[in-house]
């Protein structure tokens, strides 16, 4: 088998990386320190390290006072999750940030700490990251974000700027009453007034100067949320809020994301660390579609498929249709077919050496079939299935499948192999998800992965890809 056959995606960074950050999708994690569920799992640096090594570029940390209120820890507040020291998390990020990619890492802080502890965090961040930390010029408003190219091997901090000292007291009282409003994921806020000889304003200033991406929660009505201010910013919406406002404000959201950053996060009821459909965020231009990386399921496979693009660097350039401010894209309006993707599934191999003789069936060789689907804008979603090849470890299907695509730039090709079981419960036999825009045409040996997204050593499908323009 030649090397060309084994290469079915572009392996190097090939997108233009000189545009503002708002022009890219960023590989984004949610509660990046949790090892399991959202209510009782351990907090650790391990999932942070694992995420960075697979190319994740946005790490989320929840900052809380420790029990003595003299230091900062990371935990999911209002739950039974354990805590991990903020210092340990920052050290883990510093040491692993650029193993998988040299493009910038953004740390989003969910901040539940007082001004004295904010000052402590500012010093900690400065000491640990030093020259790696990107500090914008705070003397003037940032009218557009810097580019990934200009921020190579830099760390950016994104959080809400501290409020003025006179508003701090009122804010604390409000947050104690409206404890869940800020994050919508079960976290509860609990601030305590602290004071020392240094003014609250000086403490807040050091922390404020860390922030390169200003964040905020929605206030007022939808029109106010999506106003395009002089200074670019990050807005966070839960998955269900995005879904609701997109019904009537789809083009407003897309327009907002042409300059500003939109982060989407899982709804609070996902206590099992499950995920949602990321395409709803992407097709509205959302750059930071935040996922629980410790989970499983097909939505996480879509996330991994998207970020196999552009050499797996964690930044994928948004298609031009999402950046055109003369004709704002509406993902729910049907467009003409742009391309046809032809997938010719020839054969599969590798299961016999990967699994035991009786893994699928005690009495006979397996009966394999292939599910091939497109996930993308609503008009492009489709799934097709090959016939079942019975009693064969090296099945040959030789079947052609065609998909008409109205928005190929956002389309993901999802392939799954199952072994037919007479009980009706089909056995999983491998999967992969690939960005259509990155596929290399021709005959390719496509490697399949297990349920966790880890590649099998031997299992591959021999497939021919062809793309026809309309």
What can you see in these coordinates?
It catalyses: a 1,2-diacyl-sn-glycero-3-phospho-(1D-myo-inositol-4,5-bisphosphate) + H2O = 1D-myo-inositol 1,4,5-trisphosphate + a 1,2-diacyl-sn-glycerol + H(+). Residues 236-322 form the PI-PLC Y-box domain. It is an enzyme of class 3 (hydrolase). Residues 185-194 have a biased composition (Basic and acidic residues). It comes from Pisum sativum (Garden pea). The structure is a single chain. By secondary structure, the chain is an alpha/beta fold. It folds into two domains: 13-322, Phosphatidylinositol (PI) phosphodiesterase (TIM Barrel, Alpha-Beta Barrel); 339-469, Sandwich (Immunoglobulin-like), CATH 2.60.40.150. It is 21% helix and 27% strand. It has eleven helices and 19 strands. It has helices at 3-6, 46-53, 86-96, 115-129, 165-177, 200-208, 222-225, 239-256, 279-282, 298-306, 351-354; strands at 24-29, 58-65, 72-74, 84-85, 105-111, 155-159, 211-216, 234-238, 261-265, 288-291, 315-317, 339-349, 368-375, 382-385, 396-405, 412-419, 427-435, 442-449, 455-469. The strands form three sheets. The protein has an eleven-stranded mixed beta sheet with strand order 4-3-2-5-6-7-8-9-10-1-11. Strands 15-12-19-18 form a four-stranded antiparallel beta sheet. The protein has a four-stranded antiparallel beta sheet with strand order 14-13-16-17. Strand 18 (442-449) and strand 19 (455-469) form a beta hairpin. Helix 2 (46-53) packs parallel to helix 3. The longest helix has 18 residues, at 239-256. The model is unreliable at 171-182 and 186-197 (pLDDT under 50).
